[in-house]
């Protein structure tokens, strides 16, 4: 089992950490290196109308999250019986095959089917995070959770730039081939360079998740963390699909819209990278719940000026500050989960959390598209800010109830 309850690092922990951090970085980079250009790739596979292209692109984008939300709990159950390393190997190996094969696709339905399959076997970053949670002393959990989150964020920043260069020079299939090869190397690294101190549990000896929830001091906290995960991811994904269109309207279609939109899209990730290490150390000193409450409050406040901005550069500035706040959100949630649940349930709890992440991604995309279609782009920021305010109030209420009990 993991050794997070004591204050000693397990043998080989640092090599495991660096390997998994690099693996999470490659996974984040591979995803963002291919996804921004998938609609352009689909457009090359047939003569589609504007409406058809949007529908097929949406299906290809959403297929992964739908299957991920459905299947994640099953993988979580297996992770708690067989270990998280095996789950990382499974995710990296299947992602290597599916992404490489997408590069070979001859029609749009092959892409959608492979993206659905990819989602059903995904989960590298979440399982790598759960593995490190079990290998890390609890006094350092905040920093490690932040570092693992930062790996995916850093990959998401680098991926679009690399994918844009490769697509422009060699065509839209090449990024899929390169990502497939990188994920295969990730599979090899995870297999041979990581160590997990885990004792397999027989299925009949594993506590049901319901029983574990009953034995928790305050299961409402864990459920609230799932809800918060969904809201945080939704708040990010509601903006993502419309950022380039919003920037285009702010610039009145003058100048290099693609470049400015890319900068505006990247600024939150840059802000998260800048503040992640500091936030992680702060979390270990004052606790993840204080950091989470502060992050939610600051994120809500930052959506107010974003709703009223009239310049892409001021939007970029506020989104950079939002990135500083975002560094406190997902790692704080994962740290609360790490500290409040028994090690034997890490796989199932983190996989359930991944299902809520996937649900948030789908929900956010729908909210952003519908609201911007019915009203205007600033209304998306207003509604997103309000959902974060509601989330903040719920978190405060639940934590107050816990203190009283």
From TrEMBL:
InterPro entries according to UniProt: MFS, MFS_dom, MFS_trans_sf
SUPFAM superfamilies (alphabetical): MFS general substrate transporter (SSF103473)
Bilayer topology: Multi-pass membrane protein
Domain called Major facilitator superfamily (MFS) profile: residue spans: 16-403
A GO-annotated cellular component: plasma membrane
Recorded GO MF terms: transmembrane transporter activity
Compartment(s) of residence: Cell membrane
Transmembrane segments: 20-42, 54-75, 87-105, 143-162, 174-195, 216-237, 257-278, 290-310, 316-337, 381-399
Alphabetic keyword roster: Cell membrane, Membrane, Transmembrane, Transmembrane helix, Transport
UniProt-recorded name of the protein: MFS family major facilitator transporter
Organism: Limosilactobacillus panis DSM 6035
């Amino acid at each position: 089992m993991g050794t997070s309850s004591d204050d000693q690092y397990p043998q080989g922990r640092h090599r495991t950490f660096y390997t998994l951090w690099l693996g999470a970085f490659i996974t984040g980079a591979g995803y963002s290196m291919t996804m921004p250009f998938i609609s352009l790739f689909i457009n090359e596979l047939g003569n589609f109308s504007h409406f058809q292209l949007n529908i097929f692109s949406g299906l290809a984008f959403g297929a992964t999250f739908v299957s991920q939300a459905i299947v994640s709990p099953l993988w979580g159950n297996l992770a708690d019986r067989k270990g998280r390393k095996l789950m990382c190997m499974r995710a990296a190996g299947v992602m290597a095959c599916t992404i490489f094969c997408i590069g070979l696709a001859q029609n749009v339905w092959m892409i959608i089917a492979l993206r659905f399959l990819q989602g059903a076997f995904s989960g590298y970053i979440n399982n790598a995070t759960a593995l490190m949670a079990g290998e890390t002393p609890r006094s350092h959990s905040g920093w490690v959770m932040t570092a693992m989150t930062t790996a995916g964020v850093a990959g998401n920043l680098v991926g679009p730039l690399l994918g844009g260069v490769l697509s422009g020079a060699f065509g839209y299939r090449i990024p899929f081939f390169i990502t497939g090869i990188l994920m295969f190397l990730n599979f090899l690294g995870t297999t041979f360079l990581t160590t997990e101190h885990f004792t397999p549990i027989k299925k009949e000896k594993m506590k049901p998740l319901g029983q574990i929830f009953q034995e928790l001091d305050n299961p409402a906290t864990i459920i609230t963390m799932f809800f918060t995960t969904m809201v945080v991811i939704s708040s990010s994904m509601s903006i993502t699909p419309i950022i380039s269109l919003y920037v285009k309207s702010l610039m009145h279609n003058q100048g290099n819209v693609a470049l400015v939109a890319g900068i505006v899209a990247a600024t939150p990730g840059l802000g998260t990278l800048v503040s992640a290490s500091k936030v992680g150390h702060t979390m270990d000193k004052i606790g993840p719940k204080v950091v989470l409450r502060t992050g939610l409050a600051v994120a809500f406040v930052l959506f107010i000026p974003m709703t009223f901005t009239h310049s892409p550069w001021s939007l970029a500035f506020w989104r950079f500050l939002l990135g500083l706040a975002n560094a406190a959100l997902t790692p704080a949630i994962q740290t609360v989960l790490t500290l409040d649940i028994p090690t034997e349930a890490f796989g199932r709890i983190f996989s359930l959390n991944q299902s809520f992440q996937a649900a948030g991604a789908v929900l956010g995309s729908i909210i952003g598209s519908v609201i911007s279609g019915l009203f205007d782009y600033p209304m998306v920021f207003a509604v997103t800010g309000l959902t974060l305010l509601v989330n903040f109030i719920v978190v405060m209420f639940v934590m107050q109830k816990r203190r009283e009990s």
